[in-house]
């Protein structure tokens, strides 16, 4: 895809004034971007599926005309999240044609099916953005895409918004990026643009830029970024929303990144890739050696009537590996994921 897609705007629609002020500020930034490089959409959540019922649940259908008018001010199509058929129907009748499915909805095939089956007059004019599910289950993500595709929708786009790992993560971000899942989605669906929701991964306004730049350098097809005229007064996700001024600075930073560079037939790059291949060969040989040793340990444990799983030993091993990873510039959470897979396979080999 030639153009990068930008979906920008506040987390939630809170008032007409808030949406209009944000749209006016965004228009100045968006109009300054090269039209050949970017296409943009104004976002705002009207229905907010919050974890706690005591938090702001969204303004609902009352905000539909606000969003439509704000989008006209920004010079962009309007987009909002829909989770139930009545959301989709109301927004469609108000003239909105861009919709995203949130992570919680993607995680529920029944809800996706209900949205896919909602009667729509012209499905060809609808653009769907499907966020990854809350857990790193790529099949749920794929299932949501396929349900919409089978329902006759053709303009499909996906959004990588990271994964809620709960107490199992040491990530500095709100949601663990797990770029490998996004890369696998991109491998399976080369024809579907994949955007990164930098705001929901970062969780903090000051970290949005680094996630956005990583996404662009990885070849993602665009970004979803939350921008609010006054983030300190936001009713939801205030911590991760950028001011229009911060968003302008981010776009200056991103337009300086050469996202169109071609590796071509660079001799230097070919040499480095050869080194990667040779290193991978060594790595797989070592993994094979480790599994063979695990098999011998399993035999010893059976002969001496010992349990296969020894949690204290693994906890200490994991602690040392994560500490080593951090000291050597490797994400400890990534190291934990690798060790968990290796340990699981070792236990299976012993069994």
Question: If you had to describe this structure to a student in words, what would you say it looks like?
Answer:
This protein has an eight-stranded parallel beta barrel, surrounded by six helices. The protein is of the alpha/beta class. The radius of gyration is 23 Å and the shape is globular. It has two domains: 4-255, TIM Barrel (Alpha-Beta Barrel), CATH 3.20.20.70; 267-350, Chorismate Mutase Domain, subunit A (Up-down Bundle). It contains 13 helices and eight strands. The mean pLDDT is 91.
From the N-terminal CA to the C-terminal CA, the straight-line distance is 48 Å
Q: Strand-residue fraction?
A: 5-15%
- Write down the domain tally: 2
CATH topology label of the largest domain: TIM Barrel
Q: What Rg, in angstroms, do the CA atoms define?
A: 23 Å
Topology of helices and strands:
Blueprint: E1 4-9, H1 16-31, E2 38-43, H2 64-74, E3 78-81, H3 85-93, E4 98-101, H4 103-106, H5 109-116, E5 127-131, H6 138-150, E6 155-160, H7 179-188, E7 194-197, H8 198-202, H9 205-217, E8 222-226, H10 244-255, H11 267-303, H12 311-327, H13 332-350
Q: Could you name the key traits of this structure?
A:
Chorismate Mutase Domain, subunit A, 351 residues
In short:
The chain has 351 residues and is of the alpha/beta class. It is 50% helix and 11% strand. It folds into two domains: 4-255, TIM Barrel; 267-350, Chorismate mutase (Chorismate Mutase Domain, subunit A, Up-down Bundle), CATH 1.20.59.10.
């Amino acid at each position: 895809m030639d153009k990068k897609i930008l979906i920008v705007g506040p987390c939630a629609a809170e008032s007409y004034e808030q949406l209009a002020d944000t749209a006016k500020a965004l228009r100045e930034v968006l109009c300054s971007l090269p039209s050949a490089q970017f296409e943009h959409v104004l976002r705002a959540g009207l229905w907010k599926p919050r974890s706690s019922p005591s938090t702001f649940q969204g303004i609902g259908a009352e905000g539909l005309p606000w969003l439509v008018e704000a989008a006209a001010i920004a010079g962009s199509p309007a987009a909002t999240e829909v989770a139930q058929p009545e959301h989709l129907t109301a927004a469609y009748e108000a003239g909105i044609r861009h919709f995203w499915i949130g992570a919680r909805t993607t995680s529920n095939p029944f809800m996706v099916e209900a949205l896919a089956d909602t009667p729509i007059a012209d499905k060809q004019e609808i653009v769907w953005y499907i966020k990854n599910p809350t857990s790193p289950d790529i099949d749920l993500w794929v299932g949501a895409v396929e349900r919409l595709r089978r329902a006759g929708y053709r303009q499909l786009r996906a959004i990588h918004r990271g994964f809620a790992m709960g107490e199992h993560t040491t990530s500095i971000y709100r949601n663990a990026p797990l770029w490998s899942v996004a890369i696998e989605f991109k491998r399976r669906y080369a024809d579907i643009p994949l955007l990164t929701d930098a705001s929901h991964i970062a969780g903090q306004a000051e970290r949005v830029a680094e996630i956005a730049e990583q996404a662009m350098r990885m070849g993602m097809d665009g970004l979803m970024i939350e921008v609010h005229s006054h983030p300190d007064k936001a009713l939801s996700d205030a911590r991760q929303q950028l001011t229009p001024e911060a968003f302008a600075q981010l776009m200056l930073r991103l337009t300086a990144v050469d996202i169109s560079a071609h590796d071509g037939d660079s001799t230097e790059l070919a040499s480095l890739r050869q080194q990667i291949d040779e290193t991978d060969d060594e790595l797989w040989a070592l993994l094979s050696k480790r599994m063979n040793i695990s098999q011998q340990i399993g035999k010893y444990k059976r002969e001496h009537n010992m349990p296969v799983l020894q949690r204290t030993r693994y906890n200490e091993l994991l602690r040392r590996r994560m500490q080593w990873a951090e000291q050597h510039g490797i994400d400890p959470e990534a190291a934990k994921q690798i060790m968990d897979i290796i340990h699981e396979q070792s236990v299976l080999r012993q069994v």
